Automatic annotation (TrEMBL):
Gene that encodes it: pgl
InterPro entries per record: 6-phosphogluconolactonase_DevB (IPR005900), 6PGL (IPR039104), Glc/Gal-6P_isomerase (IPR006148), NagB/RpiA_transferase-like (IPR037171)
Species annotation: Halomonas ventosae
Pfam families: Glucosamine_iso
Phylogenetic classification of the source organism: Bacteria, Pseudomonadati, Pseudomonadota, Gammaproteobacteria, Oceanospirillales
Job of this protein: Hydrolysis of 6-phosphogluconolactone to 6-phosphogluconate.
Protein name, entry field: 6-phosphogluconolactonase
Keyword Nucleus: no
Amino acid sequence: MSDSPREQLSRQLAEAVAEALRADLARQENALLVVSGGSTPVPFFQALAACELPWERVQVTLADERWVAEDAEDSNARLVRAHLLQGSAAAATFVPLTTADATPEQGAEAVAERLAGLAWPASVVILGMGGDGHTASLFPDSQELSLALSTDAPAVAVRTPSQLQPRITLSADRLHQARRHVLHITGGDKRAVLARALSGDDVRELPIRAFLACPLATYWAP
Ligand code: 6PG
């Protein structure tokens, strides 16, 4: 049975990311990959995990994380460990964003030091996009959005618009520190949102706009 469009897209993206990592590893000791969570990336993680790479020299961290236990169903760290890093030498240097601290604000400060030790600028930052135009955990009109867009701190504690779920997100400053940016989007419902973002809506309404000026490859499947 032929692959679905999403599976074909995931394989193409995995091959492109593997190529980018190989290119950077040809001139530096380590290469950093920053990935997003949610449901879209799972087939991409599986396809990338199957690529031949010196995984012991590949560092991985997250663009954002929900403030939940690392074995929780909706943990992005759990997703990455299960589908990208399972049995991989890269698991040893994976930097999750949740910490043992009591609050996400303390966690964002605590994780800053571990993030600083990674091979910035990242080889690739992979961003998803929600149906409201959020990316990472930079949500429209959230009270912490201005901070996340302006701070030079690497990570910021934020709340989802529903205030239900505390999160940690890399700041826009940190997410910009990459040689390559990729938008990995699935869902036909998002086509109109991206078109609005491309046509010029304000970054507070559509935070994905903060990254559309980057040299960006877009991988899209309905
Ligand atoms: C997260 C992601 C988030 C994601 C979008 C799109 O933690 O949920 O980092 O920014 O990329 O919500 O998610 P889907 O691609 O699964 O719709």
